[in-house]
Protein: Cell shape-determining protein MreB
Amino acid sequence: MFAKDIGIDLGTASILVYVKGKGVVLREPSVVAMDKDKGTLLKVGTEAQQMLGRTPGNIVAIRPLREGVISDFDMTERMLKEFIRKAASFRLFKPRVVICVPSGITEVEERAVVDAGIQAGARRVFLIEEPLAAAIGAGIDITKPDGHMIVDIGGGTTDIAVISLGGIVESTSIKIAGDQFDEAIIKYIRRKHNVLIGERTAEEIKMQIGCVFPRPEEQTFEVKGRCLMTGLPRVFTVTSSEMIEAFEEVSTRILEAIHGVLERTPPELVADISTNGIVMTGGGSLVWGFDKLIESHTGIETHVADDAISCVAYGTGKSLEWVGDMQDGTMNISRRKQMNN
Ligand SMILES: Nc1ncnc2c1ncn2[C@@H]1O[C@H](COP(=O)(O)OP(=O)(O)OP(=O)(O)O)[C@@H](O)[C@H]1O
Structure:
């Protein structure tokens, strides 16, 4: 009868919902399809994603979160409502919800996320910053006075943070992540092969043969697109070495951001990080060789967490234990903790 507490990883690319006692119960793309004329919601998640780029005039399929922040509040609210409804059946009691947000989020955006959660049917909404949730999800004990570095590469944002004593000591959030790898592939193929491909094809290429470090064996992918010279379909092959070239700018930006955070981190914590290593989370960290690339640039051992895509959702879910006795109001968990210290 009592509503279960819920943890939500409100991501640019996908939404994961964690229900206490059940684990991750829902994992769907953050896409909604609307009938523009009637203003009605047609589909959310996977079904809406299949409509992306294939809709007739009156239907729009959109991603209401862009670059890790809410760009369309109304749609985000409707989408959240639908996912909460799908994930947890509650009638009498509304659930408490922890939502994970990027560390660079502004107060206005924070308020928008909290409001969306309340409008979507939550009794109370708590926010947790993405790197903290990622660290908890990766199995790091964040409460110790020991420095850990998390590099969370999502769809729209990369959050890099140094964590110690349950808080973020130094961090940055850049709007360069998985989506920019897709864009880089589209640009590269247009420039080098004179062919136009769609976002979904680009993502597929990234997942199949994408890499930022030389692979032990060359991989190839057969691409189908529209030739820019003739306007007709064209099929050709791209190789994994070409991907390193296509991704160079994007991966360099992420490396520079990591370097910047390390430079600003107090020396004691840098020493801890060099012992503990760097942990990568988020779907973007699955681009082949990213751990090797970071390791070669920083000299610090780097590894991708198990089930990197679900880390933030697990961590958000686990953080529900922390809000056990919180009273009314909405509160950012890390700030609440800082206030208690
Ligand atoms: N196997 C894979 N190889 C490469 N990239 C992948 C793989 N699986 C997922 N991705 C990419 O990971 C990104 C999504 O990651 P994730 O689900 O962690 O992001 P998010 O939490 O929704 O986004 P954000 O944190 O920016 O709000 C997408 O760009 C997707 O293409």
Observations:
- The CA atoms of residues 224 and 235 lie 5 Å apart.
- The chain has a mean pLDDT of 86.
- The chain has eleven helices and 18 strands.
